[in-house]
Amino acid sequence: MGTVFLQLLSITVLLCAVQLIASYSFKNCIEKQRGSVFQCISRKDKDLSALLKDLPPTATNLNITHNNLGVIPNNSFDNLTLLQYLRLDDNKLTDICQFAFQSLHQLQYLNLSLNQLSHLNPRVFRNLHNLTSLFLANNNLKQLPEDIFSDLTNLTTLILRHNLLTNFSGIVKAVFHLKSLVVLDLCFNNLTSLSHDNVTLPKTLTKLYLSKNYLHELACDKLFLGSIKILDLSYNANLSTISFHGIDLGQINFLILRSTKVDILEFLNISNVNPANVDYSGVILHPGLLKQLCSALQQKKIKRLKKLRLGDNGIHKLENTTLNDCPIINEYLDLSHNKFNETDCLMFLNKQTKITNLTMEHNYLMSLPSCKTQNVTFFKNLIELNFRYNRILSVMANAFYQTPNLMTLKLNINKLAYLEIKAFKGLKKLVTLRLDNNLITDLLKCFDDLINLNTLNLRNNRIDVIFEDTFQTLEKLTTLDLGGNKITHIKPSGLNGLKSLSKFYLDGNKLKTIENSLSPVFQDTLTVLDLEGNMIEFTYHAASSPFRNFSKLTDLKLSGQKPHGLIVLPHTIFRGLYSLEYLYLTNNNIRFLHPDTFNDLTSLQFLTLDNCCVGVANLHPGVFKNLRNLTKLTVENMGIQNFSKDVFSNLTQLSRLQMNNNALQSISVDALQSLPNLQYIDLRNTPLSCTCDNSLLQSYALQNPTLQVVNLYQLPCPQDKKHNFYNFDVNVCYLDFGKYMFISTVIVVFLFTVTPLLYIKLYWKMKYSYYIFCAWFSEQWSRFREGKENCKYDAFISYNSSDEQWVMDQLLPNLEGNGSTFKLCLHHRDFELGRYIVDNIVSAVYSSRKTVCVVSRNFLQSEWCSLEMQLASYRLFDEHRDVLLLVFLHPISERQLSSYHRMRKVMLKKTYLQWPGMDCTDPAKAQELFWTQLRRAIRTDGRMEREETGLRDETETPENKETKELDYKSDDNYYLFP
Question: Which SMART domains does this entry report, sorted A to Z (predicted)?
Fold first, then answer.
């Protein structure tokens, strides 16, 4: 029973330990950066305190978005006092209690956007002295309490866009205390004026955004906007020119008046704003007004403009002289969102030859004609030209003849289908060319002059073949993007000339093989190769790797080969890629991963096999054996059925393991323990069974202080919807243990029942066995078992104290007296004082050649006499010597001997002596014969081979003769003395 109790106690201690040891997995959040960055996104729990209660106090960055919290209670973040970055956007918040953030003294960023807040408690932001950015966009706020921001002494950015604010004066009173405020965003509210009730804006405020309100007047003091540098008043449809009368705008560096009723020319006349700092986009400037604007700028003695924005003015065309009267534009001219349908070789710029950047995106341009004419104007300072989002169908030869120093050209997101061979003639300084998202089908050596091109983007076109020498002159090209085309093959010399190519994107094409497609020209420079979404196939018998010469390749993507994926992946496919760090094999149907497949990838750090290897339900041992530098492995939705130590144990640097959507029902803890650096494992949507096979995994996941099991507390039990994996009943795992407990209990009860019976029946036998065992280890053992010469006594006399008189009067004188040489052992005389009586008995029996038992009725009732007799009989059977002599003082019935089976057994086979009583014919003679026979029996060696003859084989002596006259029972084989 004691054993059972200890086992139950150990189970209880283990369960308590599970509760006491903090799990590294979190109930509602995911750790993104060790101990500091956490995400609690799309959780079902509506109680914020429960959501955060298991996060460590070391957290500094917390993202709680896309939830249904409703309310933030008081003291919700008391255990997270080190938070610096907090996102609470998109949580359907309707209320925030006044002490919700009171412990966040270190907080610097707070986002409360995209909620349903209609009011704020005046004390809700108290104690947030370090807050620098506060986002309250997309709520239902109608007003702000006056002192709500009074403690935010370090606040620099306040975003209040997309609310229902109407009282600008109340806003000013609320922000007046913000002595560090730089940005105030009030766009998309219901403000009608800037009336402020004699309260001023903070002097530090330099950026004020008021777009998309209902302003029809400013109604503010002259110097109210005196500190503002950037002022956005766009899309206030009722705001007119008269609103700016008497307003000081002299400090404005950038003013936006798009889509208002402001007459820009009149505005420049009544305002002290610097015309060079006004955005003239969306102010209805047709070419005639634009010319007047240029004249007005000249009148204000503006000789140079750094930037001129003329977007969204409905301009169809600019005459060659339209911008002649404008100040010289040094850098940037924006003509976006107009209605240009031709460029006229940029002749409208005419004298504006200092421009470095021209943007004409979002227009109606149809083509770029040849500009090699006699009267062409060269714009040698123009280095960036942007024609994105037009309708350009073709680029003719010498289309950029007038811009020889162009470095960036953007023709992407058009309808380009045709490029003349000399379309880019003369652009020898071009570094970046964007031709992506067009309809280009052929590349006809149109890049010959682009000898300094560094980046060429041809993504999402309709190219199907790369012809020979297409890129022959692009020796400095480092990035070539041909993704999203229809390329079926590349001519043998199609990639010639790309001696510096580092990043090559061929994803989303129709390549079926890469054996002859990749030129050895860039084998020593290529670092990134993207072949995702092609139609590449391999055979099992591939002799060598097509990537074998790419010694510097660090990033290889082979995901999603169509239509069925990379069904066959030769084990030689990645040979020679010793520098590879990132390998993507997602969305393939690889049927077999050879154990040597990744052998050469000794530098690999990231491997993804998502939605892959449908046929590789069991990964083979050794498949990852050389990936000792791998830190992240993604094997989602692979149908993996087992997590074997033989497969994963070599990933000693692995820190993140994505195993979602697999068929794992159990995971060996030994396998997880073989990954010493594992910090993150994702097992979502994996049917881990809540059975004894995972009892150790449950304990390991709950107790491991370094491994984060993502959403551990949400992992369900497939067989029992009422429980989750973390709390399924592990007691069922001790059913076998219960069986052992039952067996143990039965044994214990049996022992308690049988032991008393055994104690009565076998007590002396057990005692004897014990002492025999002890004697076996003692030096006396051998001495006891040796011959006669080692015996201390001739005989040990075993008798009851009631028979002591006979022993002293008859036995002792006849055996030790009258000239006899016998030495007897008597307990009252020869037992060692202070020694255990049993030890004395054992010593006496084995120190004497014979044991003489003086049997009487009192002897049979004595436990000590019984022990002495049984010890002697054990010695008899153990040593096969006739060491036991029985002397009966008076006749004993068989019934009285029935409990002494060993004595009866001796009596049936051995000699015993009967003391002749006074009733015999000649008592004196009979007694003399008795002592003679007893002396002879003590002297004899008594070996067992002579036991059958007993005393009958003794040499005939006078005593013998007389003994023969006694009654003899040969059939019973013992002597009786009358």
Answer: LRR_BAC, LRR_SD22, LRR_TYP, TIR
Q: 3-state secondary structure string, 242-278?
A: HHHCCCCCCCCCEEECCCCECCHHHHHHHCCCCHHHE
The DSSP element (H or E) to which 648 belongs, if any, is: helix 645-648
Tell me, what DSSP letter sits at residue 376? P
pLDDT of residue 4: 40
* pLDDT value of residue 773: 62
User: Residue 119 is encoded by which pair of tokens?
Assistant: 């009011």
pLDDT of residue 283: 92
Q: Return left, alpha or beta for 426; rule: phi > 0 is left, psi -120 to 50 is alpha, else beta.
A: left
- Quick one: which of 509, 622, 491 has its CA closest to 558? 509
Q: Collapse the DSSP code of 367 into the 3-class scheme (helix H, G, I; strand E, B; otherwise coil) and give the result.
A: strand
Three-state DSSP class for 409? strand
Q: Would you mind telling me the total number of residues written for the chain in this entry?
A: 978
- 910: DSSP letter: S
Domain ranges for the chain: 788-975
Residue burial 836-855, b: 16+ Cβ < 10 Å; e: rest: eebebbbbbbbbbbbbbbbb
DSSP 146-198: TTTTTT-TT--EEE--SS----HHHHHHHHTT-TT--EEE--SS-------TT
- Identify whether the C-beta of residue 275 lies closer than 8 Å to the C-beta of residue 253: no
What is the rounded radius of gyration, in angstroms, for the C-alpha atoms of the chain?
Answer: 54
Q: How far apart are CA 228 and CA 203, in angstroms?
A: 9
Q: Find out whether 689 and 714 touch, Cβ atoms under 8 Å.
A: no
Give the strands of the sheet with 367-368, arranged side by side: 367-368, 394-395, 418-419
Task: Yes or no: say if 71 and 93 are a contact pair by the CB < 8 Å rule.
Answer: yes
Residues 428 and 452: beta-carbon distance below 8 Å: yes
Task: Output DSSP code: residue 508.
Answer: T
Measured distance CA(749)–CA(756) in Å, rounded: 12
**DSSP run (H or E) holding 329:** strand 328-334
Q: What are phi and psi of 170, to 5 degrees?
A: -65, -35
Dihedrals phi, psi of 307, to nearest 5 degrees: -140, 140
Distances (CA, A) of 306 to 250, 333, 383: 18, 9, 15
Residue 25, judged by CB atoms within 10 A of its CB (0-12, 13-18, 19+), counts as buried
Q: What is the largest CA-CA distance in the chain?
A: 175
Whole-angstrom distance, CA of residue 376 vs CA of residue 32: 58
Q: Please, which residues have CB within 8 angstroms of residue 260's CB and are 6 or more apart in sequence?
A: 233, 234, 235, 236, 237, 239, 240, 283
Q: Mind listing the pLDDT tens digit for each residue in 155-213? A: 999 999 999 999 999 999 999 989 999 999 999 999 999 998 889 999 999 999 999 99
Q: CB pairs under 8 A, 24+ apart, for 275-279?
A: 275/300, 275/302, 276/302, 276/304, 276/305, 276/306, 276/327, 277/252, 277/253, 279/254, 279/255, 279/309
Cβ pair 610, 635 in contact under 8 A: yes
Q: Which residues contact 885 (CB under 8 A, 6 or more apart)?
A: 795, 850, 851, 852, 853, 911, 912, 913, 934, 937, 938
| pLDDT for 534 | 95
All residues at 6 or more sequence positions from 303 whose CB lies less than 8 Å from its CB, including other chains: 327, 328
- Domain 788-975: CATH superfamily is Toll/interleukin-1 receptor homology (TIR) domain (3.40.50.10140)
- Which residues of the chain fall short of a pLDDT of 70? 1-23, 374, 515-517, 542-543, 614-617, 732, 734-740, 761-790, 819, 876-880, 894-911, 918-919, 941-978
* Whole-angstrom distance, CA of residue 457 vs CA of residue 455: 7
Torsion angles phi and psi, residue 432, rounded to 5: -125, 125
pLDDT, tens digit, for every residue of 601-627?
999 999 999 988 766 667 888 899 999
